[in-house]
Amino acid sequence: MARFIVRRLFTMFLTMFIVSMLVFAIVEIAPGNVARNILGAYATPEQEKSMENQLGLDRPIIIRYISWLLGSDWQVSRRLGMPVKEIVISQGVVERYHQWWAVDENGDLVQWDVEGGKLIKLVRQPDGSVVQVLDDQSWKFDEDGNAYFWGLDTANRAALWMPGQEGTEYRLEYSGWIEAADSPVDYIPMSKGLLRGDAGISLRYKRPVSEVIGRRISNSLILAALAFSVSIPIAIVLGLIAGLNEGKPVDRLISLGGLITAASPDFATGILLIMIFGMWLKILPGATVFLSETAIFKDPRMLILPVLTASLVEIGYVLRITRSSVVEVMNSAYVRTAVLKGLSQRQVVLRHVLRNALMAPITVIMLHVNWFIGGLVVVESVFGFPGLGNFILNAALYKDVYAIEAGAMVLIALAVGTQLIADIIYSLINPRIRYA
Amino acid sequence: MSTASFQEDIARPKQPPQPVAPLPEQLGAARRFFAGLWKRVRDLIEIITASPTAVVGLIMVLFWVFVAVFAPLITTYSPLEQDYKAINQPPSAAHILGTDQLGRDVWSRLAYGARTILTLGPASVLVAFLLGIALGLPSGYYGGAIDETVMRILDALMAFPTILLYMIIISAVGPSHFNVVIAIAIGGAPGIARLVRALTMDIRTREYVAAAKLRGDSDFTIMVREILPNCRGPLIVDFLMRIGYAAFYIGTLGFLGLGLPPPTPDWGGMVQQGHNHMMANVWPVLSATLAIITLVIGLNMFADGVREESMRYQ
Amino acid sequence: MEQTPVLKVDGLAVAYKTRKRDIHAVRDVSFEIYSGENLGLVGESGCGKSTVAYSIVNFLGPNGRIVRGNILFKGEPLHNRSEKELRRLRGADISMVYQEPMSALNPSMRIQDQLAESLITHRGMPRSEAYGKSLQALKDVYMPDAEAVMLRYPHQLSGGQQQRVVIAMALLNNPSLLIMDEPTTALDVTVEAAVLDLIAELKERYQTATLYISHNLGVVARVSDKVGVMYAGEIVELASTRSIYQSPLHPYTMGLMRCLPDVDAPKGTRQLLPIEGRVPSPANLPSGCIFAPRCPHVIAECSAQRPKLIELTTGHHVRCIRAGEWIGKDMVWLDQGVSTEPCPDRDEASPEKTLVVQNARVYYPVPFKTVAGLFGLEKRQYVRAADDISLQVKRGRTLGIVGESGCGKSTLAKAIVGLEPLYDGKIEFLNMDISSPLNKRKLNVIRELQMVFQDPNGTLNPSYCVGDQIAASLRRFHTVPPDQVQGEVEQLLRSVKLDESYYYRLPRQLSGGEKQRVGIARAIASNPAMVICDEPVSALDVSVQAAVLNLLLEIQKTHNTTMILISHDLSSVRFFSDDVAVMYLGRVVEIGPCEAIYMPPNHPYTAALLAAVPRPDPDLEPSRVRLTGRVPSAVNPPSGCRFHTRCPFYMGDICKEQEPPERDFGGGHKIYCHLSQEELEQIKP
């Protein structure tokens, strides 16, 4: 039993590992590269090249993958020969800035800049101000005698300066392209990596993805939990009723209803519900628009239609699974034994049918969680619900790569985790596994 | 008690004709082929007509197939023709389902949209089946390390919520007919591969496979000649189900704005655009919504009916 | 003494509704069972015996119904009773034992709860008392370690234990009527023997009226007082067990007896006489006697009208218009053409050896169950399916390999033909080394070594017609030029007694016996030197078994084919083999000429196997050499002699610790056992 769980945990991690590679591969290697996505079609090749360099996209794919997953700070720290540190500066209530600093031998937080060929060390003072110190003695030399220096620049990147070989840095600001001379020749963007909670900076929000995504996750979880707790009990009861009355009119009715709700695409169901309840009956907010991310708590009525839509599809599916499982168990030899033992219909159902018949749906429901989550993405989009699904959809439409990657990983981790829990529950209720 | 042994006797085939013509083998072969084909078709018709669900589903599907095939004959406007003087019109004699926010005829777009979904759906399922069979057949047949590797990758692919996988793929490669087909095929292939693998693992232990090995047949021959043909029952049912899913997802992708690039007539896209103008004119969104619902439900009912009947048939 | 029968079935007819028409599965069935009496109902598959059983408990499923007739339980009609009344009877006064004990028990409920439930429901017994009584019931059926079994789930028990649980459950409420539907069919022969002992003993102890359903004449002879023989939905003969077996009066019953191989008759002394034709479909019954189309004694009057079941002599009922002519005559063996004609080369002192297996081992790796295992950190474990096997087969002869399921006999066969790789050891065939698996063997070796398979439904590819499957072999091996393939296939079909019209049939249009024939035709298509038959008849009805065995024998005679016959059925092995090897848990425990194996001295395991064979003779005193316990796992087989955990002659440490020595009894007869030669000769099966 413990062995079984350990084994499942192991395969889960293996799966997530492969998933991370797939996500990274699809998003970043696919034709139509990231830099072009950001720059649009009118950038010059030089501009594009500079951008790729700044984003670290010209580095080998394996290194990029490792940096994405595990961070680049430790790699940079090794290059610099000193530790690096991320600090968060809060301004006001919500505004927060992340800054990367190196820690020098005095324990000061330092960054560097090069001006007119001179290396300048920026030392952060305890009050937050910065003192510039000339640091020209820190240049290092390779075997050909060329000077170079790896340091942290002021834009959260590790940068390689080489006097005499300065490149031109193109930066796209709101005002347009900015050309900066004297700029470093190579960059490594700083990050702590996905596994350490840093999913990179959203290209759309210009803020760390991890900060934007938190509220979205909890919103989605609330929606999912509500839909789940509404749909599963209803579906199981309906499935039982249908299965126990196999072939009778009530079974036909429930089965057909299940087929229709399960087959209808979520968005179509959602739109129809909006029309019926919002436009014609006018009893619920129809064109639901959540203006802020916390709006879902202000008017619970707004939640009714999204929950209903997400539930309907799930009800249809689960009731069909439950029904067929009940039918199968009802026709099994051990139910025949129970009947021929002289038990009443009620006793047969309660003692022999229920437990065995509900074992299959539990796994199927949990394996189905992917489908359910996919449905949530669509439901969130129909109702403009500020959840994770909508977040990923917008990221996908905007090609906000780090947001897509982080959102996808979170969503898949949720799905895989649920399946793991399902497996454990299943092994607990099924004696064949428990006593294997 | 089983009645199987009785039924064996009921279905006695007719004696095959004795070869007399100049090229007896070929002639006989051709005739047998058509006789066999006709028998299959008859079986299929019998299965379908035995299930009211399948019949209703088939009628719904055939309605849209008819609309798609004869789209040019049953519409008066081009689906792309914009008429700025008549936008968001309710149904009238000129436009039986009204016009959309760009003044395009809703019925025309619906009819041509049926063409889109009814070609892309089966096409993507077909590609998915090719992929799935290519992965699942060797995986199930050889087992061991090959199977383990393929299964881990498929597990990872199946860990993606399908919609998410499509979103990522389409956002990476951009929306187009081809890319939608590829995305849906990649999303469907793991499930098919698992089904084929499970069937193969079962069938490879059958004695006729051992018999084929005992005549020195190669692994490839055994997989293609002995195993694959005997997977066809479950695969056909799965194929029918998946056409329903494909239509479901093509609609959903269209709705999410990841489907076919405008102005291609696409039901999902129609729902999305109509959704934004719902207060002004409900007809475009309502008709597109009902179209996708009827088609997908029809496909599902048909597949479901066939599945249940064929289970009973066996 | 006039008493009311516990069960009286009178003119019962049952029909199943199918989409096309009603199928009358059972017609005009009448019998009575008195208290303490055991009525056996025998017949081949599909003859309606189970339908009779389920119509008594009114559990025919949604599409079955009783069309005519009465079922009286203790004088009161059973059907048309309310659900509630039926419930009170079921499990209390009438209980049932099923064919598949595993599926008859609820997989997610402990044994004690499944047992106690019956007592709580019917007697309102408190739970603790019900547990106590259930435990006693398990002990009454000699369940080893009954206390532990109470707490287990069904999947944790062996098949024999499961069936004991089902029997204990049926007996809990001291039923007046017990219905047993093939209770031992799913069990191995030694387990079957023990369960049959139990059933016979319980009858003496409880005086329960029992309806015992079986397809096996030997089993019924062992437990029943009266026997009803069913054919195509009708009882054709009903009499006391002794008169049925000694003087059967219906030609079908006679046919059944004639087609059974006799475990006590050596090869070549008896010919099996199969019943020609096949059972008519209930949708298409002949107008007169239903057996007339297959009856060797048919006369014109037979097809005039359906004969009635008449009492010909006291208590002996027969449904045959000519039965009266046969009273007092020894009809069973009437037209037995005794075939003692030897196979060619039979007298040759030491014919050359076609196959020599030396120390062959076939191990299957056990899949890793732990994470450590996945990384190769754990020692690989193996199922030792065949472990150190050595044997030889002489040209033109048959080696029989017997043993219960899981003993490794099929694995060994697969290793010989190359379907499983050898782990260790050597196989020589026609003086060539064929220790390599199939894909490394040359085509001309493969063609000389073919196989006939067990499962008639799996042996043919359902997608292709019969002829094409035989032709595939011919084409592949270039046995005949391409333009003669069709003719050769027809020739082969004729040689397995099928006419050429079978060429274009699909496997699903064939009966089980016909499929096996096609499988044989395919195996001999390349004219192989050796054919390995893996349980070729065990899935077939007895009347069909005879025909297939005869066919194999004929093929051996005509082509001088060397054969290996793998079977769990000692009777068919004796009928067919020249030499026999007995296997237990991957090892050969006894090997020798066929005659020597079936006579003392025997290995204790062989003796137990022989003792377990149900013989169709009610006067034979059942032997008491019985095995206990379950077959150990082949992953960690017992040390020393592998049989020591179950051996009735277990002698202590020597058996547990040391490999058994070879005891040579001459003529190639060898026994691997620690018992001395003298002790071995004392063992009587």
Distance between the termini of chain A: 8 Å
Largest interface, C-beta closer than 8 angstroms, per-chain residues: A-B, 50 and 46 residues
Radius of gyration of chain C: 27 Å
The helix fraction of chain A, in percent, is: 55-70%
Helix content of chain C: 25-40%
CATH homolog superfamily of the largest domain in chain A: MetI-like
Structural overview:
- The complex is a heterotrimer of chains A (436), B (314) and C (685).
- With 436 residues, chain A is an alpha+beta fold.
- Chain A folds into 2 domains: 54-197, no CATH class; 211-429, MetI-like (MetI-like fold), CATH 1.10.3720.
- Helices cover 57% and strands 16% of the residues of chain A.
- A 5-stranded antiparallel sheet of chain A has the order 1-2-3-4-5. Chain A has a 4-stranded antiparallel sheet with strand order 6-7-8-11.
- In chain A, a hairpin with a 5-residue loop joins strand 6 (140-141) and strand 7 (147-152).
- In chain A, helix 8 (266-280) packs across helix 9 and helix 9 (301-330) packs across helix 11 (345-367).
- Chain A is elongated, with a radius of gyration of 29 Å.
- Chain B has a domain at 112-314: MetI-like (MetI-like fold, Orthogonal Bundle), CATH 1.10.3720.10.
- Helix content of chain B is 73%, strand content 0%.
- Chain B is built from 13 helices and no strands.
- The two termini of chain B are 16 Å apart.
- In chain B, 50% of the residues are buried.
- Residues 1-24 of chain B have low confidence and may be disordered.
- By secondary structure, chain C is α/β, with parallel strands linked by helices.
- Helix content of chain C is 30%, strand content 22%.
- Chain C contains 23 helices and 24 strands.
- In chain C, strands 6-7-8-3-9-10-12-11 form an 8-stranded mixed sheet, sandwiched between helices.
- In chain C, a hairpin with a 4-residue loop joins strand 1 (7-17) and strand 2 (22-33).
- Mean pLDDT of chain C is 86; it is low at 333-346.
- Chains A and B meet through helix 1, helix 7, helix 8, helix 12 and helix 13 of A and helix 6, helix 7, helix 11, helix 12 and helix 13 of B.
